[in-house]
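Weekly sync, protein design subgroup
Attendees: M.S., D.O., the rotation student, P.L. (late)

Item 1: inverse folding check
M.S. brought a backbone from last month's batch and wanted to see whether the design step gives back something sensible before we order anything. D.O. pointed out we never logged the input encoding, so this time it goes straight into the notes. Structure tokens as presented (153 positions):
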């Protein structure tokens, strides 16, 4: 009987996951909401190198609940944040940097009139749209805060 309880505790503790210092846990991932700003490319470099040995990337948004969580944090912090998608490879086709998957999110995630195209190729979450349709495309050279993501361990 004690052995079964012990196994149950081990399974539970590994499933709950832990995050590196400075990261916030949500679901199976850990998120770092930067106080620093950078370009889209520079922000990805920070995510992938600054938290050694943790490997992180600009966030890849995979669900409505994850999008809502990130949007609420952006509203609380009153900041715009880079996320990990762009159409730098093929104009008009946004892909997630980490997985390479095409962004197939519903249009409700994009702010009205977005994406605009032109010289705007990198995706950000903005806090001032009033709803969770908070994605915009913007020039990759803008200086924005950023969100890094890594799996909970």
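Designed sequence read out in the meeting:
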């Amino acid at each position: 009987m004690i052995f079964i309880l012990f196994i149950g505790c081990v399974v539970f503790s590994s499933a709950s996951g832990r995050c590196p210092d400075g990261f916030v846990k949500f679901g199976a991932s850990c998120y770092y909401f930067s106080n620093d700003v950078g370009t889209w490319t520079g922000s990805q470099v920070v995510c992938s190198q600054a938290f050694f040995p943790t490997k992180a990337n600009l966030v890849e948004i995979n669900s409505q609940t994850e999008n809502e969580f990130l949007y609420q944090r952006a509203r609380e912090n009153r900041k715009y944040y880079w996320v990990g998608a762009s159409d730098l490879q093929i104009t008009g086709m946004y892909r997630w940097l980490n997985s390479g998957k095409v962004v197939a999110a519903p249009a409700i995630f994009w702010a009205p009139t977005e994406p605009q195209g032109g010289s705007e190729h990198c995706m950000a979450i903005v806090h001032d749209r009033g709803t969770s349709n908070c994605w915009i495309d913007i020039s990759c050279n803008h200086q924005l805060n950023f969100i890094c993501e890594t799996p909970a361990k």
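Discussion: Residues 1-15 have pLDDT under 50 and may be disordered. The CA atoms of residues 57 and 110 lie 21 Å apart.
Action: P.L. to compare against the previous round before Friday.
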